[in-house]
Known about the structure:
The protein is flat. The protein has helices at 7-14, 32-51, 65-71, 73-77, 101-108, and strands at 17-19, 28-30, 62-64, 85-87, 92-96. The protein is of the alpha+beta class. It folds into two domains: 3-51, no CATH class; 62-118, no CATH class. The mean pLDDT is 91.
Amino acid sequence: MSYLYDHRFLADEMELYFFEEMVGAGLPMWLPNGVCIREALEKFIKDKEFKSQYQRVSSPQLARAELYQLSGHLKWYKDDMYPEMKWPEDHSSYYLRPMNCPHHHKIFSSVPRSYRELL
């Protein structure tokens, strides 16, 4: 494979992003040129979603362990998830979310709904 088509070399050459060991593996530090590309892609996707009448939601990046126990994520994916975080104030355990589905189930179930809304 030619270095001309390798994202690791292109990112450096085009000043898109870099990785910093102190930040962590796989966590890019986006530079202005990379942010331009990211924002253009995000705008493209959001425009497509808007035209398709897609409704966006947003949820926290972490939740209490009980949510992931109920959803089964701790049972099946705990070894592949980020480690547990303890909150000393309320003695709770939290995890960074491994997937969107437990949060989105909570959003959907936040109000009574008819099965017809699933169509």
